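User: My advisor, Dr. K., asked me to get a structural model of this assembly before our group meeting. I'm new to this, so sorry if the format is off. These are the inputs:
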Amino acid sequence: MFRPATIKDIAKALGFSTSTVSRALRDGYEISEKTKNIVKEYAQKIEYKSNPIALSLKGRRSYSIGVVVCEVANSFFSQAINGIESIAYNKGYRVIISQSHDLYEREVINTKHLANSSVDGLIISMSAETTDFTHLTKLHEKGLPIVFFDRVIDEIKTHKVIANNFDGAFAATELLIKNGHSRIAHLANATHLSITKERMDGYKAALSKHLIDFNPTLVEHCQHGGMIYDEVENAVKNILNKASGVDAIFVSSDRLSIGCLTALKKLHSDADCLPVAGFSNSDVVELLKPSLSYVRQPALEMGRLATELLIDLIEAKYPVTEFETKVLEIELFVNDHALGSRR
Amino acid sequence: MFRPATIKDIAKALGFSTSTVSRALRDGYEISEKTKNIVKEYAQKIEYKSNPIALSLKGRRSYSIGVVVCEVANSFFSQAINGIESIAYNKGYRVIISQSHDLYEREVINTKHLANSSVDGLIISMSAETTDFTHLTKLHEKGLPIVFFDRVIDEIKTHKVIANNFDGAFAATELLIKNGHSRIAHLANATHLSITKERMDGYKAALSKHLIDFNPTLVEHCQHGGMIYDEVENAVKNILNKASGVDAIFVSSDRLSIGCLTALKKLHSDADCLPVAGFSNSDVVELLKPSLSYVRQPALEMGRLATELLIDLIEAKYPVTEFETKVLEIELFVNDHALGSRR
DNA sequence: AATATTTGCGCAATCGATGCCGGCCCTAAC
DNA sequence: GTTAGGGCCGGCATCGATTGCGCAAATATT
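Assistant: The format is fine. Below is the predicted structure of the whole assembly, which you can bring to the meeting.
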């Protein structure tokens, strides 16, 4: 079986002690240049690589960070992971990914598993189901660095990275309004998620600015975050059947946007007559039919930023007490065909 | 800082030796029931978890597997990762993911990094750029278990998991033929990838079955696998400008399918008049316009299977010499609007 | 020339957990 | 009464690498 060379092998071969070899490789000041060269050359020759596991055991550091997201098969998260991975690898950290599938139980298991695997820190976006945060507060109190992104919680004081969800929702809603729509339904995510509230606020603010009364009956929540298609389809059905009539839809998340369009296509003969604007990071939005005006979050950048903040926490010499919540700007992409303009 | 309880803490608190505690926790036969209960109860109370790093150092096993894919932000791969992750977690392995971005250099760095991180095995889908496999053969010769999926190579004898690319390409091409098209261009992936050849063969076989001459000038390769959009757009331009005329396109990969539709929409006024059939695992294919008939690979199942095979290799008591290449069946989804039927 | 200092390197402990070996005590068999 | 054996547990070495301390030889100092 695969047995990598150890520092002992070098020591034996060269007639030095392991301590000398270790110090020579790390350029210890107490070792002569001559010895260093001999050791380094030999190490190079036999392709010696230090064993990270032994290092971890000594240093109480594993140089790995854990990531918990709903699912990787989702444009927003896979882009974020892309960002996480790029920074982590540059700084010498491994990335261990796990998926909650928007399930509370899976989230708990995964975080425990990761913490138990001695990750040096955690990057997490909360599952739609989670309302009890003790699995995280416990770890955090024990000193495990955690950074939240996208779906954050107030209960833990630490760095957070989010998109400007308020502005995004505001812009999308206002776009619909400016195109002559006023009976705008809101297909929203699970009630207790931070993003749900922030985006709802943006939606309300846009209505308010344009003197449209907020009508709670026009809001439909999907408690499973779109993971269960039937739930989305039902919500869309409800929207289509509103007694008061609906002339546009603002959708609160990536998965819901796709679900909404799918449901519309299925339920509505001329789906494009009901304009939809929503959050999406899909890379094929421009090709969708029914079409979608969309708000795109800087997912890659969010991942990068979260990782930088986490590594700062991990490598901090003194306990960090000042935390920041970074808010990145979103981008609105207008799709004319999606607006059913009445101008 | 976060210092988990160790076996020593238990030993000290209870007045036993560390060996006794260790054996009590693992149900060693030489420990009395009474002691076992005391130890286990206390361990439960202080939430003792064994340190996997120490275990790895002793056992020369890290219970982690490395995954190298082009990118996670790609439906096929994110679904495959989903499958990998599900099996791995069930069997107690962590998953460490890295992306090659279809670059040779990144692939080499990542595999080295993973091997050096003492992963117990590797699951890999080759990058489009890679033609030199020594970074993998070396590791494999040293005894590192490797399983290939999707984009495999002949040079290394080990388990492989692929979709039936021949059948997929055949079915997609034949679909176009049966709908009255005969001048079918082929937008293909990087020349040396296994999937490129297999799919090309399927394409040729379908033409041949229907007595259509294979015309090499109707084939356009994208050496970067669609990672560079301009390359795809150029290829599509070339296809549209074929002197001989083209009345349908068969596309060889997920990313290329999306790129092709994007280019068509941009370049062609009535994009839907040129039917496209191609490989895709996107979950929004049904909503695309121009529309796409598509071949879907069982990505999740491929990931699961590859992981099971890898763990078999890792946990094999004796060196494995018999390797298998699993070929999973594909599914063809017909999209009427995408066919420009001339029936 | 005798002492002080520097240079260069080895010994041994350490990180957390395991496992071999050896030893104590109690019981049973001769 | 002596010894053999089993039940039960502790000591110590081990995995790979790092590090404080100590020691010897080489060099510098007076």
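One thing worth pointing out at the meeting: The mean pLDDT of chain A is 92.

User: Perfect, thanks a lot.
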